[in-house]
Design brief:
The chain is mainly alpha-helical and 183 residues long. The chain has 9 helices and no strands. The chain has one domain: Up-down Bundle (AhpD-like). Helix 1 packs parallel to helix 3.
Length: 183
């Protein structure tokens, strides 16, 4: 399948993708394979980066954002996203035990963050059809209705990249290999 989705360089990418690729290179310091492959569709590349910017401005802390993103990526079996978010989170100084647990889909020792991980997992697993008391448990942990909807935004973000990575067979970037869940 990956033959359909080349690893575009800025000079080989469709014109509508070139600016986004340049901006992502400036942001991350290198050309990420995810963006290089998403460049095949400038609309999908722009959708992903746009939703990413919106989610980054959510009411969640950076650590909470990564709990959501890693929980979705773990559930969807997206090794690329799990490795990328784990690497970025650890390099950014986020709490290692929380990041490793979210990446592995295991219990987080902090009760509030564990409630976020469980809520995110249930939202993905049950396709938003929560059972009685599950939303209330999330809210009782200290989260808000706004947070519940922002989890949906995080799920949308990772659905784009997780599903795209599956069909594009995106190779793991060298900086992420140390955190490859398959290694």
């Amino acid at each position: 399948m990956s033959d359909y989705f080349p690893l575009h360089k800025r000079d080989s990418a469709p014109d509508d993708s070139k600016g986004v690729l340049a901006a992502m290179r400036n942001k991350f310091g290198f050309d990420l394979n995810l963006f290089a492959k998403l460049a095949t569709s400038s609309k999908t590349l722009k959708a992903y980066t746009g939703v990413n910017e919106i989610f980054a401005r959510s009411s969640f802390s950076p650590l909470e954002q990564q709990v959501v993103l890693l929980s979705v990526s773990n559930y969807n079996g997206c090794n690329y996203c799990v490795a990328a978010h784990t690497t970025g989170s650890l390099a950014g100084g986020l709490q290692e035990d929380v990041i490793r647990a979210a990446a592995a889909g295991t219990m987080i020792s902090d009760p509030k963050l564990e409630a976020l991980r469980q809520f995110t997992h249930k939202m993905v697993d049950q396709r938003g059809e929560l059972k009685e008391g599950e939303l209330e448990a999330f809210l009782a942990a200290g989260y808000t209705p706004e947070n519940a909807l922002e989890v949906v935004t995080g799920i949308a973000l990772k659905t784009i990249s997780n599903y795209a990575n599956h069909i594009m067979d995106t190779p793991l970037d060298e900086p992420f290999k140390a955190n490859d869940p398959k290694a």
